[in-house]
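Technical note accompanying the year-one report. For the benefit of new consortium partners, we illustrate the data format agreed upon in the data management plan: each record pairs a sequence with a structure-token string. No post-processing was applied to the example shown here.
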Amino acid sequence: MNLKMLEDVLDPGGESLDAVLDWVNGRIEAIRKTAFTPEAIETFASVELKEEFVHSFGMEASSTWRRFFLATLLADWASYEKPVDRADFARLKYIMTSAYRYTRLWGCRLADRKFTPVGYTAWYPIAKFVFDGALDNQAEIDDRGIILPLRFASAKNIRYGYVFNFSIAKELRHSSCSKKLLHSFLSDKAFASDIEALMIAVSPEGRKFAERMRFVSAGDIKVQGETETLYVRHPRS
């Protein structure tokens, strides 16, 4: 999908937080009201952002990056009902300054013909001490936000990773769209089998996905009172 599709997404630059959240919630309401006909599903496609941003204000000076970030936030919130399961605005924005290259956004054109994000997959490199610390101290994990991305990692030096998200709006679960999203992530050569990785599953679907990706349970954790499962994947021998 061409990045021009992101022009249907609000540019949050210069907008108040209230205005941004009103737009996000309005698009979520549009998703909830949509009957995903074969014609709508036919428009399901992905967009990635691989551009390097050279500017004194970094990627936040780019309207494309700002739209990509907000589109990802919309996809996240459309996928989860509980606030505890959603990535909050500030946390996702921080992560996206490092991890936008490892994010694949998926969307459809709704009845108004606007491209609307409905799901996304994302992973990112993490430091060895973050990987080891999560496994050694999982009883102390009470916030997924402690697993932060390794900034400025080159592809050849990535040894540890974290599956940040794999989700789609509930209206499209168990559809050809969810299957396409899954197949795309499983085929991601960047997330190679020789990378040691962590994942936290918050739903039965997430646990099934973890097992399909050859992750094994490292035990349950408590996040804001909710029981979630920490998974680990070691390289094939």
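Partners are asked to follow this layout when depositing records. The chain has a mean pLDDT of 89.
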